[in-house]
Amino acid sequence: MKTAFNKKPEPKQPINEFIRYHQLRIISEDGQSNVMSKRDALALAYEQNMDLVVINDTADPPIAKIIIADKYFYEQKRREKELAKKQRESRIDLKEVQFRPGISVHDFETKLKNIDKFLTNGDKVKCMVQYRGRENANKQIGFEILDRITVQLTTAEWDTKPTINGNKLIGILKRGKNV
Question: Is a pLDDT exceeding 60 seen at residue 10?
């Protein structure tokens, strides 16, 4: 009786005995391809002390290569990591900075430095002025705060102009063209 412990897991890409196709198109190292049976291809691979790896199983017949499997899988994993790294580097994050209508000068300058740091890192910044209670009657104060940001930061411009959404004034800054 076989147990689950005795059985090797089937690899994601079929190699050697795990290949379930009878006919394969074998691509040699010099780029030539020919169709042969799985048995002949396996014999050829074992003769060269290499592995038979299915590269594309959607083709008819499936495409396989005679290569060293560990090296091929290592290179493939390394390529995937490089691709993921490039995608992470090119991603633009959205940072958020919140203001209140009664913000003091020093607090404003500190938040302005943070916004400048975010913009130089290539991120976009969501500037939000939140109103509470009676502050809702003076919404122009929020527009003045956001205007001060663009006046003092010459490197910034609005990606999304400030708009009122309920009791919040929201605008998104991005790095300007004149940088």
Answer: no
